[in-house]
Please model this.
Amino acid sequence: MTKIYKLFIVTIVGFLVIGCTSPKKYLYNYGNYSQSYYNLKKYQTDEAGLELQKAMEKTIAESKNSLSKRVPPGMYANLGYLYLKAGKSSEAIESFTKEKTTYPEATHFMDRMIKKVEVTEGKNNE
Amino acid sequence: MNKMNFSKLILIVVAIFIFSGCSAKYITKGEEFPRMYDQQPKSILILPPMNESTDAEAKDYYMTTVEEPFAMMGYYIFPVEMVSEIMKQEGVYDTDLLYNMPLDKLYEYFGADAVLFTKIKKWDLLYAVLISNLTVSIEAKLVSTKTSEELWKYTGTVVVDLSSNSGAGGLAGLLIDAVATAVSTATSDYVDYAHVANSKLVYTLPAGPYSESYMKDQEAKLVDQTPVQ
Model:
């Protein structure tokens, strides 16, 4: 019985050591994105919107700190859409372009968005 | 506690694990979701959830939890908030309309290989004198935009027993606890458990092209949820 007890302790210690030596890195570094997104839905204030934008910009800045070293899928696009709603058309187009160069899967959708922004811009300049 | 008792305790714990394991039937990802490996979708369009729960806010709140876990599985995930706002503008935010929309239209607009439908089945708090439970249950389904076939489906449920940590004793104590529980269970708790429910279902999804396990996880095991005939 003492042997079983010892074995148990060794196993536990083993788990603890493994837990300590390998800090887990994920495919992407989302940072506070999901939490900030939830806060926006919950409080629906301008501050919460700004917090979300900051969280996105931080996620993009710290994307290298992940297994993929890439910005998470959709992050540039979501941010670009925030810029677009704030009337910053050129920043929006820049973000949409980054989304499709990072993820070719987004090309079709992003091209559609960029075209839409350009058409609206053209109308405004007339 | 002496060593004898301690060893017994461990044996009991191990026995419980073995027995509870017996009641679940396991199946591999390759057996359960062969279409995922045949069709190999690369991008997923997450639609706003369908809410079957009694909580009207559950839809907006749950939506904020889905993007991250599915992206972590190695798929390209379309920007959830942006997509939902565009859907609103196009007049198809109402989930019934959305869910009856022809899939080829979604492919045409977004260029997504697959669409993720999520259904909030339970998002509620049951509290009575003797039991109080918080339940979050999510059903997720991935459908191909090209073949309209169901590629993957799984349900994640979390039931949290809130009555176990009684402070005061006796029946009066239980009543106080029940009230305290109801007060302390803020909406943020639901979202925390929604994250847990997501992790319970997303692990069964075959890994996507950005994952190291892509096309290598056919043998990975999961609990078979197919009802017994």
Summary: Helices of chain A lie at 2-21, 33-43, 46-61, 75-85, 89-102, 107-125. The longest helix of chain A spans residues 2-21.
